[in-house]
Fold these 3 entries.
Entry 1:
Amino acid sequence: MEKIIKAAVDRGASDLHIKAGDVFRARIDGKLVPLTKQALTPEQTRSIAMKFIPNDEDRARIDKIQDYDCSWGAQGIGRFRVNILRQRSSFMIVMRVIPFEVPTFDKLSLPPVLKGIAEAERGMILVTGVTGSGKSSTMAAMINHINATKHKHIVTLENPLEFLHRDIQCSITQREIGVDTESFRMGLRAALRQDPDVILIGEMRDSETIDTAMKAAETGHLLVSTVHTPDAQSTVMRILAMFPPEEQDVVRVRLAESLHAVVSQRLLPKKDGHGRAVACEVMIVTPTIKELMLDRDRVSEIRDYIAEGREQYGMQTFDQHLTDLVQSGEVEFEVALAASTKPSDFELKMRTFRRRSTTNRKAVVDPPIAEPMTGAISLGTAGSAVTGAQPVVPGAPEKTPESSPKIQGLSTGFDF
């Protein structure tokens, strides 16, 4: 089993699937591909699950387990986030590969503006996207940047622990849900009494956790967390919808005051077939964005203001970043079109760009031919004009084309 897992990691797998009645499968470059030919039996899958469960107490009740999260690591292979589940009354295991090395913004090819976002002193930073879009890696890069550039106390609440941070300039306290603290909610409440500067929550799943997170941001802490939403605009609406209708007006004001930025992600297969490219939407809560959040009838305008704030604030929409990825040749147009927020607008913009590019190329290859000069041209002398013939001055020697004066190496054909 460990040889198969190592082979998958060596091939760049992001996830592994182990299921009774099926072969080992791995997600490589976004595609789920088989690694073996022989299907696993229910007994084999159960034995593998037993190997991943870290403590004797949970192993003793394995036959009662329906969903179970843990982490597992092996020397020379790697670390993994493990989910053990039941399906068709037998076990299945899904493993997410966690690199030993904590990623950086540059290695993840994330927009440079994220460094400035991570350096904020207070407020909420939300990293959003579907499962498997690289949210954990982006949050780890933020913590790594703070760790390398600031002197702070960072508290993380994760289920399970993923990237293991070492103390550089910061002191980092990493707590695992179910092992070091009871729940995200209880761990977050306790974190407020642990002199934190930065708090990372693996996931905000309910209104109570979000309420406590906003309190942390309101009291001067920087809070980083994730929400399963597709983009920045829907993140605002989803958070508000998690609260009862009678509380939403108050929550709207609190969210507008405490939210600092939203970073939404999508992973796309690269054009060369190797690896995946990240497409990012970045929203920074400027005074204008704050006004839109406070007005329930204008929340739908947020995306347009993100697009307009690209040059001044470094914000960008998904479609803007997808355009960059297509123009740089990193992602196929069809892939980007399928991932775009407004496919019809995105397609129109790309067609316009292609037409302009084609026109510019033709202009360079086939320069326009100069038209022969016709009509009178004023030479700046009163009463003097020419119509393409040499001016005749009585008594002056006749000029030949070779003796005509030149401007920057080109014959003017005129005697000035």
Entry 2:
Amino acid sequence: MADDGSAIRRRRQCPECGRRFTTVETTSLSVIKRSGVGEPFSRIKIINGVRKACQGRPVTEDDLAMLAQEVEENIRSSGAAEIDAHEVGLAILGPLQKLDEVAYLRFASVYQAFESLEDFESAISLLRHEAQNAAAENAAKIAKGKSSEKSPI
């Protein structure tokens, strides 16, 4: 494996002369724009787009690179050779929400074309609801772990 799993390096042997050589096999992933034009998938474009939403936030370049890698892995796991640009944007939203909620709101406001304060309020309400559910799940896991511990008697 090479290039974060997007390429496979193989050693081969020529059946005629017996010489050995190396090949690098990659899969191609095309992003189809709204105009119908296809272009190769690019992590750099994801990083640049998300970087704008992360301005002034405690997000490092390494965080952005990891986010882009996660997005690419999620997209490639679908097995499709072509994906709509809209789907790429949707794939960014989940990892970005985990990384930084303010950056998520900034990105979502542009990507999902928020037009009013109500759009922001509903997105914030959804984030709060998800955070409360996650906190409740963690509390339940902790309580379950403590109840399953046996006393040393």
Entry 3:
Amino acid sequence: MSQQIINAANIALDAYSVIISIIIAGSIYLFKKVNKSAKWFAYTNIVAVIYGIADIIMWISEGTDAKWKLIALPLSSFVFFLFGIFIFFCYIMYIISYYRHTAEIGKSYVISCLVAVCLYIVFLVITLFTDCYYTISPQNTYSRGKYFILTVLIEIFLYCEALFLILKYHKNVMGFENIGFASFIFVPFICHIVQLANFGISLTSFGLSISFLIIFINLNQKMMLDIESTKIQYNENKLKSLELHKKTILYLTNLLENRDIETANHELRISNYVELLARQCVKRGVYSEKLTDDYIQKLKDAAPFHDIGKIYISDAILKKPAKVDDKEYLEIQKHAQDGATIVNEIISISYERDFTKMVSKMCKHHHEKWNGKGYPDHLREEEIPLCARLTAIADVYDALVTKRCYKNKVSYDQAFEIIRKEGGESFDPKLTEQFLEIKDQIIEITEKYNDNSIEGL
């Protein structure tokens, strides 16, 4: 094989290594959050880019046919050796920084690495005046120096330090991470040995690029696992927070509505009524295109908020043991708009936009009537949001079958008869029909979560 072919192959190998290192370093810095250990790996690849470019220049700058080559070869040779040792330093710092997440690592490892690097650089400076590491002939060609073995011995020492760190702390991380660390030791080392035996073939940079790819794949896998773990933890905390918030609102709305803990199951019953009615509608093909599982779950979660606007109604009106007058009734009507305002200004902080919109509509329009005689906007028929139409039936039914300070409860038969008569007047006739079909299940919910029950608390 001619020298020109060997040179071309070596340049191609170095160029490949440079491209790989650029991609890896760039990819790491594209991540939104990069920890300290990942930065050290990025530095390792940046150094490897300079190392690879210097090696390429060395291959193309031999000879005396151009003046620039007389400067380029000595300079690139120096840079090649200098950044070659910096690769080891950055990589060992990467290992130390990585393992420090799980263990206390003494400063002695960093100090010994620095001593080895400084010693290497001292001999490199001496090489400028002697033939220690390498020599440049009068014909401007590169060859190994008399004490080139010193570079190998120092690199072996650093290899051993990296290997010692991996062996000592490998149990602190997952197996695939240790494989990545070990690849830097064995792949470039084997390639280096092959290169020493076959001087014409440059494999060191190629070996580094292979190990860097393995490490980067493992690093990416680790980051994905960390992200997934963070997402799971975030979702768990979010669910706990939302559940706590929902429970708080559940009791708060009941206390605000009735000023009495004995009625704390009212909102829980409403939630179960609307869910049961919605699923019955899906079963019978009524509004089934809108009543998806997600919509029904939101509907159930939204129901406890429907009367939150009653926070602004005084005890004198809410607890009045008689029928309210016209002025007091107008005051009560304000709770629909007030509830929507509370939802939009406060509850929206903790809940997603679609859910907040549903709750707002439910609060504002659950007293609208099918015939347009409700409040506050006198909407009629399907102008009334579906969530509010469902809640309206559940709310009126529950008010009928439970005792309030201003009235006694009616029997189940009487309550369902009133609901039947109001179908097409106060309530959506389709929903009314489905509500009457599940009479027995509705009664079961009423009994299960009666005002004396602690099951919902």
